[in-house]
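Sample intake sheet
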Amino acid sequence: MSARDLAEPFPHITTDDRAVDAVRLLAEHDLPALLVLDADGIPYAVVPGSQVVRQLVPEYVMEDPLLAPVIDERHAEALVEDLTGKTVSQWLPARAFKPPYVGPDAGTLEIAAAMARSHVPLVAVVERDGPASRLLGVVSAAGLMRHLLAAGGQA
């Protein structure tokens, strides 16, 4: 089966979007990770949800975990304040994963190999037409496993 057939819609953001919109997208769609596209529509980063949360925790709390119990819910507002005025590219963690992507005709094994090599559970399916690119969807690890189980008669 081709990547075009396996691809499922997946919400995404761009590097130019507001950082607060990225957090909202993750929360409202209950996503395991953020898919970030660059200005040309090419996958730029995949940011696991845990790393999005990490971006909200002040550095001084990361350095001294004993401070965490002292900070209560009244200070939660301040955690999100740091997002104000920042774009996704300004806010992204330095260790965001470069997402793998394949063309629409890629086969199942090619998708699985890209996922395994990158350690990222999402493979974007991108159709290119000269300089223009269009995201067709994403093949998730779960979607790939469902397909493989069904193909092997184990569904």
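Comment: The chain has a mean pLDDT of 86. Residues 3-151 form a domain with the CBS-domain fold (CATH 3.10.580.10).
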